[in-house]
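Model it.
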Amino acid sequence: QATGWRSDYGPWLFALMSRIEKPLTPDTGSILRDLALFCSLERWRLVNSLATKSQSQDETTSTKQESEPDKGEKSKLPEDDTRKSGSDEDKKSAKDSDENCAISAEAQFAAYNLFICLVAKYFNQGDLADS
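Modeled.
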């Protein structure tokens, strides 16, 4: 837990968990409970960070809409064709980057859910299960 979470920890932990024999020793049960609680906390942080990001994007969009002049009005600034806000390729790259982040967040969310479910259901730690 001190080093954080890396994507290659998931398959490694799953492989270790597949070798654990039941009934659990108290130490093993405690470690599995700690894992489930860690996953629950990280899942909560992930959901909150995505909600915060979404909320800030909504606020940015509404601020841009309020600051734009009416379509009937002409802009007071002269148009300059040499300066553009971004090329189509830049916009596409940014969109692809956002989609990759969303996929990554979904994969993390699924991994956290998997470990919580395994500990709760398979290893009979039902009090940790989501209701």
